[in-house]
User: Which sequence fits this backbone?
């Protein structure tokens, strides 16, 4: 059973400048609700019991968002507004399952994941990248079902245009399991168009094995000078760890770029 999820939140969010000079991008509202709440709801619905937030000292506003109890209590006492009472109840529900670790230098997603080494208990855990919203179908839940059936690691997969492959982690797929699931032979971070083995990209949902930590502790920085989680995954695959690429059914929304962020509000308000 997958009970723990980790969420890297310590990046700089430069693609959303100027907003990210003062706002943590994960708290930016999407149709009136912070992006991170969509991610938490996905985790809770998928049966996750503990969510580890990897934040930095510069992004303490994320912790403050969940720890404003005295403010809520004061306002509720004065106003008795049912909407505010409900919002506070929701925050309390989230707070019960969240814990925090720190990555004060944004050295890359792989380095962020390594910060959870002492906290992850079970053989497998879920990781979600909060820039990647998937609506209409719970992707984490579908991936957990696949994990339970095949007892392997699982990564979310989506077709992207051939000319955009250098923005993504790209899969080389192996044996087909069924229409939506394939074993993975390789994963390459941001390949050039000519070197890309396919146009199937990694999207930010991963069920990873605990053995990834030993790879990450030795992992050197890769493309763009960052420690990438995909590079550590590639090492595990080459050592015969089984990974499945899951072609998810939900709708993907990229909230990490300005155009994507604006579009995500429009899409969610329609759905
Ligand atoms: P990204 O590289 O997509 O986001 O990381 P970023 O670095 O925040 O934003 P840009 O590229 O400058 O616009 C994906 C996720 O991993 C987290 C980010 O917070 C984001 O949620 N991350 C990234 C970390 O936690 N630590 C890092 O060192 C890098």
Assistant:
């Amino acid at each position: 059973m997958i009970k723990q999820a980790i969420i890297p939140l310590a990046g700089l969010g430069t693609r959303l400048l100027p907003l990210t000079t003062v706002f943590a991008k994960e708290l930016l509202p999407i149709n009136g609700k912070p992006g991170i709440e969509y991610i938490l709801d996905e985790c809770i619905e998928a049966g996750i019991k503990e969510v580890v937030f990897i934040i930095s000292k510069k992004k303490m506003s994320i912790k403050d968002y969940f720890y404003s109890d005295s403010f809520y209590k004061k306002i509720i006492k004065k106003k008795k507004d049912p909407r505010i009472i409900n919002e506070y109840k929701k925050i309390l529900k989230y707070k019960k399952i969240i814990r925090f670790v720190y990555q004060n230098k944004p050295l890359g997603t792989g380095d962020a994941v390594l910060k959870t080494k002492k906290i992850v208990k079970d053989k497998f855990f879920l990781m979600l990248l909060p820039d990647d919203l998937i609506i209409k179908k719970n992707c984490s839940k579908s991936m957990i079902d696949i994990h339970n059936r095949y007892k392997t690691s699982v990564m979310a997969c989506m077709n992207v245009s051939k000319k955009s492959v250098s923005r993504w982690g790209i899969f080389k797929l192996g044996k087909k399991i069924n229409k939506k699931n394939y074993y993975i032979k390789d994963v390459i971070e941001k390949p050039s168009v000519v070197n890309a083995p396919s146009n199937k990209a990694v999207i930010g949902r991963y069920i990873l094995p605990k053995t990834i930590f030993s790879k990450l502790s030795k992992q050197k920085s890769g493309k763009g000078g960052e420690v990438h989680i995909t590079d550590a995954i590639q090492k595990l695959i080459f050592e015969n760890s089984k990974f499945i690429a899951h072609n998810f059914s939900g709708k993907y929304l990229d909230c990490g770029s300005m155009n994507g962020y604006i579009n995500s509000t429009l899409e969610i308000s329609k759905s």
